[in-house]
């Protein structure tokens, strides 16, 4: 059994948004509360964390405390990496293996230099960085990982494909040749910031719907959402069949990749 859990479906500011008094931010419905984007992919033998933002401590608290076999980073923006230091308890299982592209590996060396010195002080997370390249598939345990390249505005970042499952966040555009690496995707999790008002580095809902239809995904879940999406239950009614908004704690199960 394969389980894909959405740990966080919110954008960089999360929902509720600090200082906002709108109806969505005041909602008491758990479906309207969104931590920063992250996900957990699990099989019976392997656990992969996708991104590790500032909410990761609370996001992982409900799960059994056991080894993380890998942490896949989409890119090194704060809302996707700021919680890496909070993974230090997992060092009891050995090195924490982090997989990222060249840009993100370089960034982590700059933002977390205390983790990469010759003499680590007690308590520092034991991080082992693995530099990966788009289109070069590798496996972690029994999980196949295919990095693909998408554009976050002008910044190249990674999306990930796991067999028939694809997870892409913070995408604004994608080169035509990347579609070849998305053929046969059945379940798509992809970003959709809000309904209206163009953004320089994120897709809107209509963009995400067009993208999902282009790759012909059977089921699509929209993530990395702002409070401007509206109430979760009302917003879902506005989406076409086969597409729905993700929410924190959403569990998708599969029999195989």
Quick take:
This protein has 257 residues and is an alpha/beta fold. The chain has helices spanning 56-60, 78-81, 102-111, 205-215, 232-236, and strands at 2-8, 38-42, 47-50, 70-72, 96-100, 127-131, 138-140, 143-152, 155-162, 165-168, 187-191, 219-223, 243-245, 251-254. Strand 9 and strand 10 (165-168) form a beta hairpin.
Describe what you observe in this structure:
The protein has helices spanning 56-60, 78-81, 102-111, 205-215, 232-236; strands at 2-8, 38-42, 47-50, 70-72, 96-100, 127-131, 138-140, 143-152, 155-162, 165-168, 187-191, 219-223, 243-245, 251-254. The radius of gyration is 18 Å and the shape is globular. The N and C termini lie close together (10 Å). The strands form 2 sheets. The chain has a 7-stranded mixed sheet. It has 5 helices and 14 strands. It is of the alpha/beta class and 257 residues long. Helix 5 (232-236) links the parallel strand 12 and strand 13 (243-245).
